[in-house]
Amino acid sequence: MTARIIDGKAVAASLRAELATRVAGLGFRPGLTVILVGDDPASAVYVRSKDRAAKEAGIEATTIRLPADTAERALLAEIARLNADPAVDGILVQLPLPPQIDPNRVIAAIDPAKDVDGFHPVNVGALANGQPGLVPCTPAGTMKLLAYAGVKLAGARAIVLGRSAIVGRPVAALLLAADATVTIAHSRTRDLPAECRRADVVIAAVGRPEMVRGDWIAPGATVIDVGINRLPDGRLVGDVAYAECLAHAGAITPVPGGVGPMTIACLLENTVEAAVRRRGVTG
Ligand code: GUN
After folding, report:
1. Atom 9 (ligand 1): residue with closest C-alpha?
2. Angle CA(229)–CA(57)–CA(164) in degrees, nearest 5?
């Protein structure tokens, strides 16, 4: 069997086009401010992509670049200013932050209604309780790809590899909300290959290049690869050994071109949702 390839780039492009149409009909431009502290090269690339995609969708995007030695209180003051600015619908502080800044304090300072990353404890709590809120972008994008691929989640066995706050935990909560039977595996899980082989849906979010091997995948299972790892030879690979898993899976996401493009599309969707909810408009 050769798996169907889930084309995240195409799904993201159609979501972005839908959002641009929705924004054009709003009668105002939703505002997104991204804050980048320091000069981490990977973060700079992500922030530029977010800014460009937001502008293409008709969102008023602003990037604030602060030096690497910015004091925590200066960043908190900037966030307080953005919280109070009615033109700002979404605030995103790019992670990681320099060591003198506590990311938890920073995230907690963002108005939960403007927290388009879905990282604020109020939004984390809402997701854990199955209540409405802003959902983290990569997990939201993962769920959209599963829906696009026509994967039935009710009653399915899903395994999430990784328990990070950004991906593993929230995607497990979303799978549970979709009535899957969810296992969260991590570095202390015993016999991970056997756990994987029981799953109808495998979500890999561990940050280890090509860790998931072909013989871990049940015939016909769906494999979503959230990992993006740069190998010493410059190649970009996921957490899944793609060529091997392609031979076992029913459907699989590539890297690049799978979950990655969905993350930005979902950030734009969160920004539009935050704008519509905060401003009490429909559209
Ligand atoms: N750094 C890596 N991924 C993310 C993300 O989803 N949001 C933010 N703010 N920073 C990140």
Report:
1. 94
2. 30
| Domains of the chain, each with CATH number or no CATH | 27-113 (3.40.50.10860), 136-260 (3.40.50.720)
Catalytic residue among 89, 111, 115, 117: 117
**Which ligand 1 atom minimizes the distance to the CA of 136?**
6
115 CB near ligand 1 (under 6 Å): no
Pair 134, 123: CB distance under 8 Å:
yes
Distance CA 8, CA 16 (A): 12
Q: How far is the CA of 49 from the centre of ligand 1 (A)?
A: 12
Q: How far is the CA of 198 from the centre of ligand 1 (A)?
A: 31
Q: Tokens 């009710």 correspond to what residue?
A: 154
> What mean pLDDT do residues 124-148 have?
97
Contact in structure between 128 and 171 (CB atoms under 8 Å): no
**pTM of model > 0.90:** yes
Query: If you measure from the C-alpha of residue 234 to the centroid of ligand 1, how many angstroms do you get, rounded to a whole number?
Result: 22
pLDDT in tens, 198-245: 999 999 999 999 999 999 999 999 999 999 999 999 999 999 999 999
Write the pLDDT tens digit of every residue in 65-95: 999 999 999 999 999 999 999 999 999 999 9
Q: Is 137 in the pocket of ligand 1 (CB under 6 A)?
A: yes
Residue 282: per-residue pLDDT: 80
